[in-house]
Specification:
α11 (247-250) links the parallel β10 (231-235) and β11. It is globular and about 70 Å long. It contains 15 helices and 17 strands. A seven-stranded mixed β-sheet has the order 6-12-11-10-9-7-8, with helices on both faces. Strands 13-14-17-16 form a four-stranded antiparallel β-sheet, with helices on one face. It has a two-stranded antiparallel ribbon with strand order 1-5. It folds into two domains: 2-65 and 339-438, Aspartate Aminotransferase, domain 1 (Alpha-Beta Complex); 70-337, Aspartate Aminotransferase, domain 2, CATH 3.40.640.10. The chain is an alpha/beta fold and 439 residues long. It is 38% helix and 14% strand. α13 packs parallel to α15.
Amino acid sequence: MEQVVALLSGYFWPTLMNTFENSLSFAQALDGADPLRSFRDEFHFPQHDGGPVVYLTGNSLGLQPRAAAAALKQELDDWARFGVEGHFQAQHPWVSYHEELAGNTARLVGAKEEEVVVMNQLTSNLHFLLVSFFRPDGKRKKILCEQRPFPSDTYAFASQIAFHGGDPETDLVEVKARAGEHVLRTEDILAKIEELGDELALVCFGGVNFYTGQVFDMAAITNAAHAVGAIAGFDLAHAAGNVRLKLHDWDADFACWCSYKYLNSGPGSVAGAFIHERHLNKGLPLFAGWWGHDKKERFKMEPTFKPMPTAEAWQVSNAPVFSMAVHRVALEQFDRAGMERLREKSEQLTGYLAFLIDAVAKETNTNLEVITPSDPAERGCQLSVFAHGKGRDLFDALTKRGVIADWREPNVIRMAPVPMYNSFEDVYRFGVILKELLA
């Protein structure tokens, strides 16, 4: 125990998986040595029976940063004080508000500042990007995605195919898991890309699958798509703020993400988009709007659209300042914490959760099947569990005991210990409650 604590105190997370202990003292020792532990105090936790809940659903909605209220009040006060002149005189002028978020966003997703823009919501951004990047031509008209992506992606892909006169039944193709398996093998994804070849217009995967929690090899998928002449894009709803991203270096063509899950920016908050620099200012078709027009000439109100030379060209409307105010707080927290340190802690925190689930399953003789990959490199924070013979009853019982997890039909409980604010003691408390319910 002392050796573990000494290592952690040196800002180095050793591989602890083989030395985990199912004890409160062990969990508290890890928390005491955690260099990120102070971030927990920057968030509001819902309460249950006089204490904080065990909040394991940051993959659905992140907790509220305590600084969010003051950030929002600042914009409300500036609106009251300046009225319309707040666009230029507010502490954070509204006319350029989105520009101030570009640096933090670029660092978060591994991009250049000119390649990212904060705007709209996730599926809106996906549609706007598909306008530019899904260009079916002759036999090259298929979209490839993973088996069971988030339904909104399926709806977007199918509607875009239909809009272009195609048939979603044949032109939307899913890579399916092998019989008896829950997650996809990278070699099967790459083989499917090669098989479709010149029929493939677009490959668009979730960076992390919402149901299984599997992290896909985005670099390999991008390379394979480009090798057959297809575009590669990603929905990073469950990846942004969860796993390390290097969108520019991976050569992805585009990506989009939300900010209300791991990015802790509030329900329905503003989203983000990435367009690789090689596509910028190249005359790609896009749906034009006022805020995508060259900002130097925007207020001339001229009738001909002149796109910005950056990802901002894809904007159609001005900044939703109130949601951006909260998002600013969250992005600044990620800058202070650093994705490298967050990811290092995440691997251990999720590993500890997997260890406890396995221990409880053995002690209670319960079939708890974790369908998320066991390799930390192939998963983020989330673990998805089939509780065979228990299912929804177990989930409801956990909720009554103050464990806030997540249920997804038909039969999976999703749990995500988030390194920004979750502790090892949170995970230990979950293990205790789980054992009591199953015993």
